[in-house]
Write a structure and sequence with these properties.
Layout lengths: L7 E4 L7 E4 L1 H5 L1 H13 L8 E5 L3 H12 L2 E5 L9 E8 L2 E8 L8 E9 L3 H12 L3 E10 L14 E6 L1
Parallel strand pairs: 3-4, 3-7, 7-8, 8-9
Antiparallel strand pairs: 1-2, 5-6
EC number: 2.4.2.7
Subunit structure: Homodimer.
GO molecular function: adenine binding; adenine phosphoribosyltransferase activity; AMP binding
Length: 170
């Protein structure tokens, strides 16, 4: 199946000059949804994972499906103030400022084997912040995997300490 044909470019979203990779057509197609999940799962090459961490919000789409296939738990990482219990936070730089992510302090146990999943790897800021949170809680990052990697933004070059896999590269 040609998954690329189900990802459309939306110019000037969310701001002028950005070409947004819209995956909603892929999500609406049951066969594409199943194939995408299976292909993301294959990127793991049989590695043992007991927690899948997904970043808000599109990491919540395939993250739980991967967790189910792995018989692992799913852990959300969210923007500040969205998680109801005690959290740990990590602030990171963006091209135009800073942002912060949070995780529940009891979501990862020392020694957990963790897959970090998100829909897009762009500059690497969000993924690196997630990695730092996981490591601060004692988790071991087995892999960071993404549906899409925007190679022209060089995000994977900022993630040299981790195994990075992407299903589609643009």
């Amino acid at each position: 199946m040609d998954l690329r044909s189900l990802i459309r470019d939306i110019p000037d979203f969310p701001k002028e000059g950005v070409i947004f990779k819209d995956i909603t057509l892929l999500l609406q197609n049951p066969d594409a949804l199943k194939e995408t999940t299976n292909e993301l799962f294959k990127l793991l090459n049989g590695q043992k994972i007991n927690k899948v961490v997904g970043m808000e919000s599109r990491g919540f789409l395939f993250g739980p499906m991967l967790a189910s296939k792995l018989n692992a738990g799913f852990v959300p990482i969210r923007k500040p103030g969205k998680l109801p219990s005690t959290t740990l936070s990590e602030t990171y730089d963006l091209e135009y400022g800073t942002d912060t992510l949070e995780i529940h302090i009891d979501a990862i146990e020392k020694g957990d084997k963790v897959l970090i999943h998100d829909d897009v790897l762009a500059t690497g800021g969000t993924a690196n912040a997630a990695c730092k949170l996981i490591e601060r809680l004692g988790g071991e990052i087995v892999q960071c995997n993404f549906l899409i990697e925007l190679t022209f933004l060089n995000g994977s070059s900022k993630m040299n300490d981790y195994s990075v896999q992407s299903l589609l590269k643009y």
